[in-house]
Design goal:
- There is one protein chain.
- With 82 residues, the protein is α/β, with parallel strands linked by helices.
- The protein is globular and about 30 Å long.
- The longest helix has 12 residues.
- The chain has a four-stranded parallel β-sheet with strand order 3-2-1-4, with helices on one face.
């Protein structure tokens, strides 16, 4: 596993991004907000609402080895399981 997508850039996302970087993983952060705290800790940031299921987002998720939900929004989690 080399590349991880973290969905959600607030407190849980900060912890996930920090620990992923410490483990030597490439990190991609996905959040619908531009200015989230975890943004400065990742290799790449994608501003996008996962509930919209945009083709660009699906394409990016196919490039990662692991998706880590760092949020508790039930609708978002449901979309991620699809």
């Amino acid at each position: 596993m080399n590349r991880i997508a973290i969905v959600g850039g607030k407190l849980q996302g900060v912890e996930a991004a920090y620990l992923s970087k410490k483990a030597g993983l490439q990190t991609v952060l996905i959040d619908k907000e531009e200015n989230v705290p975890a943004r400065g800790l990742v290799d790449r940031f994608i501003c996008c609402d996962i509930l919209k299921k945009e083709s660009m987002l699906i394409h990016e998720l196919k490039k990662v080895d692991f998706v880590l939900p760092a949020l508790e929004d039930q609708e978002a989690l449901k979309v991620l399981t699809e």
